[in-house]
Design goal:
It contains nine helices and four strands. The protein is α+β, with helices and mostly antiparallel strands. Helix 6 packs across helix 7. The chain is globular and about 45 Å long. The mean pLDDT is 88.
Length: 209
């Protein structure tokens, strides 16, 4: 599956597509976007699916926000010299992509100087990102999932919590096959069973609401 296919599947299966995030445009002042991201950080993160699964495609950053479903994929293959760690670069790209979602921009770029992104949008997003990136209170720390003792949690980091929830709900309703999940998530049978058990209680609670 290509990166855009993961988004297409997510968009197709997600039942509640109402987008609660405030939408901005280029006419809005940058300070308005920065304040919104700072004050609503947890709320925004909850409503964007961040994913980090490895892909052979050349894209460093993919942002999809069509159909009121927000999906960001980060695919770091080489650490730039101006970043000290993978986590720092990951956090920078996540902030960059988050601002793109808030101004309703979808794109796939191979690097941050990719000409597929207009110079105006590039400069706009870069300026916003730097203002947030150096704020110590804003850290996603999504890579922490890798260090958990439960190896199944690495898939939550790789694909995003909500993405997996949507897929497992579809499996629970017999809309997806077990073998398809194994292939799509590149996961062994036993780990998939463990991961599904983690989500099943959440799915049952949602059905009762």
């Amino acid at each position: 599956m290509k990166i855009k296919d993961y988004f297409a599947l997510y968009e197709k299966l997600k039942e509640n597509k109402a987008n609660p995030l405030k939408q901005f445009c280029f006419l809005d002042k940058k300070i308005s976007l920065i304040k919104y991201l700072k004050h609503k950080k947890s709320f925004i993160i909850k409503n964007i699916n961040y994913s980090f699964f490895p892909s052979n495609e050349p894209y460093l950053l993919s942002v999809f926000c069509g159909g009121n479903v927000n999906f960001i994929h980060i695919n770091i293959k080489k650490l730039p010299p101006n970043f000290d760690s993978l986590q720092e670069y990951e956090n920078y790209l996540a902030i960059y992509g988050t601002f793109a979602v808030l101004i309703n921009q979808s794109f796939q770029i191979e690097d941050l100087n990719d000409s597929r992104l207009s110079l105006y949008i590039k400069d706009f997003l870069e300026d916003l990102t730097f203002k947030i990136y150096y704020d110590e209170s804003f850290r996603l720390n999504l890579q922490d999932y890798i260090n958990k003792e439960n190896s199944a949690l690495k898939y939550v980091y790789a694909y995003g919590y909500d993405y997996l929830l949507v897929l497992f709900e579809a499996y629970f309703k017999e809309k997806l096959e077990f073998n398809f999940l194994m292939q799509a998530l590149k996961i062994e049978k036993n780990e998939l069973i463990r991961l599904y058990r983690m989500y099943k209680s959440k799915i049952l609670i949602r059905r009762e609401q």
